[in-house]
Amino acid sequence: MSEHVRSAVPATWYADFFTELPNEFWRRAAVPELTTADVGFVQERLGLAPGSRLLDVPCGSGRHSLALAALGHRVTGVDISAEAIGHARRAAATAGAEIDFMVADMRDVPRTGDFDAVLCLGNSFGYLEPADLTVFIAAAAAALRPGGGFVVDFSAAAETVLPGFTGQDRVMRTGDITVEAAIEYDVLTSRMLSRYTFIRGDERLDATAVHHVYTSGHIGALLRDGGFTDVTLFGGPDDAPYTMGSDRLLVTARRGERR
Questions:
Q1: Where do the coiled-coil regions begin and end (predicted)?
Q2: What's the rounded Cα separation, in Å, for the pair 199 and 180?
Q3: Please, what's the largest Cα pairwise distance for the chain?
Q4: Are residues 73 and 188 in the same domain?
Q5: Do 26 and 137 have their domain in common?
Q6: Which spans in 54-209 are helix H?
Q7: Are residues 45 and 98 in the same domain?
Q8: How many independent structural domains does the chain possess?
Q9: Residue partners of 39: CB distance under 8 A and separation at least 6
Q10: What is the value of pTM for the model shown?
Q11: Is residue 4 a part of any domain in this protein?
Q12: pLDDT in tens, 107-159
């Protein structure tokens, strides 16, 4: 990949990427069965007590927050996309759910030390530059009470994306939205760049997403260095073990005792 292509993608690409058209595509693509499976995994693996205080970051359009609130949990959702937060607030109002939705960077979560769990779902863990990722991990730890749970959902772990990687273009459709995707892997920075074209009627939006690729071992080390213990890897919400070629990595961990 050329230096021009690498430099053309800003480090904070996610600040402007999640506008209405991309958000609406993923709202449609995330069918209810996926949310149900994720929430079941979180409930079981973290052993959430009724009325637990949860931080969902980044929460996107609120699908996990809404499902967890429906189970009686007290949820705070944080996302940088004002469009997504607006959608989440409207959905919560329709459902009669009391959820605190905030527009903020995922590094700027409430560091109150009293959340029972922090959830980083939806494959957002690799958005940040490596140095900023350590800031997010520290923020997540500071948000949690001692022993509180952390869940990371990541589909861009090296053991998932690199075996057999071809970068083959693909086309995705949901309703009247078509997405053309071209994916490249930058070996110099261990980044996967997904160049999307979103099409709906006469609308056309070109946008590039970046995922920094980490090995599962590196992720575990980052969490332990950030104050987490009991780091456990799963290949999906069905509790399958994470292995080479698994489609998805789910990590659970616990906040250690305060030093």
A1: none
A2: 8
A3: 57
A4: no
A5: yes
A6: 63-70, 82-95, 130-143, 158-161
A7: yes
A8: 2
A9: 64, 67, 68, 71
A10: 0.94
A11: no
A12: 999 999 999 999 999 989 999 999 999 999 999 999 999 999 999 999 999 99
